[in-house]
Amino acid sequence: MVSASDRRRAVELIEQAQQVGARLAPACEVLGLSVRTVQRWTCEGGVREDQRPTVVRPKPANALSPEEEQAILEACHRPEFAPLPPEQIVVRLLDEEQCYLGSVSSFYRVLRRHGELTHRGRAKAPRRALRPTTYQSTGPNQVWSWDCTWLPGPVKGLFFYLVMIVDIYSRKVVGWEVFHSESAHHARLVIERAVLAERLIDQPLVLHADNGSAFKGAALLEKLHELNITPSYSRPRVSNDNAYSEALFRTCKYVPDYPVDGFASLEDAQRWVHRFVGGYNTEHRHSAIRFVTPEQRHRGEDPQILAQRHALNQVARDQHPERWSGPTRNWTPITVVSLNPERDLEHTPLDHAV
C-alpha cells in the first residue's frame, strides 16, 4: 500500500515532468504507475486516499449460500463418497438422487476453502499421455485392447499373471483371468472366452496389444485368424500405444482395497479380480465416456442417461441463471473413440478388417 506522502511526491514529479514537455503516459511508466492510477490520485484537484485495500467488496450475486455450501460439504463427507473425487460425486448425485448441489468446480472451491482439498491415496499426480493408435471405434465390440500385469503373491518374488481385455469404446472389461504364469496359451484361453461371452463368432474385430511375447505366439495368431480378429501391436518401446489397457491396470491397482501386501493364493487373486471387474463394469463412472458405467455404454443406455443429466442441469440453470456464465455441462454422448488418431492416413476401416 502506497502512503499518502509517497503519492503526493509521485504526483509532484509527474506534474514537473509535464511542465517541461513530457507526456503523461511515459512519465507514469518511469515511476512504475499506470495513467489510470495517477488520474484516480489527482481527481477533484487533490491527492485522494487510495480506498481499494479497505473497501468492502459486495458478495457476488451467484455465490453459494452458507446452506448450499454446507450441503456440498455434507455430501463429500458421506462414507460412500469419501474416497471419490468431486466429478464422481456430482454425477452420482445426479443419477442416484436426482440432486444437483453445484458444479464440479464449485465442489472443488468449497473443499479448497475449508482445507479439505488434498491428494488422496497412493496415486501420483496424473501425467499427460499420448493417445492410442491406428483404429477408430463407433460402437461396442469393434476394437479391443488387452495386456497383462503381475499381481503380488504371498511372498516376495512370487507373482500371479493377470490378463484383461477392454473394449475401447465402452471401456467394459470383456474378458479376464488370473494364471500362475505367462504364456500364449493362457492368452488364447482368455480371448476365446471373451469372444464367446460377447457372441462375436465370425464378426470382424481388432485386438490391440503391446509387443509382449505372450501376445505374438504362432498358435495365438492362428486362433485370432480363425476368429476373424485382426491383431494390432504397439510400436516398439512405446507403452502409450496401449494406453487403454495401461489405464485399466492403473485403476485396478489403485482402488482402496487393493492388497498391496500380496494375495494369499491364486484363488484369492481370482476372487478379488472378479469383484473388481464387477464393480468396474457396473458401478464405476468412467470420465472418458461422460461418467457413465461401461456396462451402460456397452448396452447403449448412455444417450438416455446423459439426456436426463442435461435436463437436470437445465432446470438448475433456470432456477439460478446468475450462476451460469455459459451453457450447461456437455453431456453429449461420445460417438467415436480412436486408437492412435495421429495416424489417420494409415487408418483401416473396420468393415474391411480380416
UniProtKB/TrEMBL annotation:
Residues of the signal peptide: none
Gene Ontology MF terms: nucleic acid binding
Domain of life of the source: Bacteria
InterPro entries the record matches: Homeodomain-like_sf, Integrase_cat-core, RNaseH-like_sf, RNaseH_sf, Transpos_IS3, Transposase_IS3/IS150/IS904
Alphabetical GO biological process terms: DNA integration
Segments forming domain Integrase catalytic: 136-302
Coiled coil: none
Entries under PANTHER family matching the protein: TRANSPOSASE INSF FOR INSERTION SEQUENCE IS3B-RELATED, TRANSPOSASE INSO FOR INSERTION SEQUENCE ELEMENT IS911B-RELATED
Name of the protein in question: Integrase catalytic region
Organism the protein comes from: Thiorhodococcus drewsii AZ1
